[in-house]
Amino acid sequence: MKIMAICGSGLGSSFMVEMNIKKVLKKLNIEAEVEHADLSSATPDVADVFVMAKDLAGSAGVPAHQLVVINNIIDINELENKLAAYFASR
Predict the structure, then answer these.
(1) Which of 32, 53, 71, 89 sits between 20 and 30 A of 18, alpha carbons compared?
(2) What single-letter DSSP state applies at residue 68?
(3) Which pLDDT value is given to residue 9?
(4) Which range has the top average pLDDT, 9-13, 20-24, 37-41?
(5) Got the DSSP string for 22-56?
(6) What is the pTM for the complete model shown?
(7) Segment (H or E) for 70
(8) Are 22 and 45 within 8 A, CB to CB?
């Protein structure tokens, strides 16, 4: 499984979300490859799951079933809850 953290420019905020995803996955005991990129790189074929802020989700060319949308990119508890719910539904 490949998870990609997305932000507008693919630099700082997506890297921070990538690090938080790795922490959450370790806690949830889920193995996955995690990377970060800019919004234009978010195409359905490059990852299984895309994590991005709600302000970008509407612009993403990714199907809803591949999206985990977060309201606050620095809230690791929200990220954990959303990822846990995503994996529980699969």
Answers:
(1) 89
(2) E
(3) 84
(4) 20-24
(5) HHHHHHHT---EEEEEEGGG--TTT-SEEEEEHHH
(6) 0.93
(7) strand 67-70
(8) no
In this structure, which amino acid lies at residue 31?
Answer: E
Query: Kind and range of the H or E element at 7?
Result: strand 2-7
- Tokens 């302000």 -> residue: 55
What is the average per-residue pLDDT within 36-58? 93
Tokens of 39: 């919004």
Residue 71 region by backbone torsions, left for phi larger than 0, else alpha for psi between -120 and 50, else beta: alpha
Residue with tokens 């932000």: 7
What are the tokens at 23?
């922490």
Strand, helix or coil for residue 74: coil
Please count the other Cβ atoms lying within 10 Å of the Cβ belonging to residue 67. 19
Lookup result for tokens 């995690």 = 34
| pLDDT higher than threshold 90 for residue 78 | yes
Are 18 and 35 in contact, with CB atoms under 8 Å apart? Answer: yes
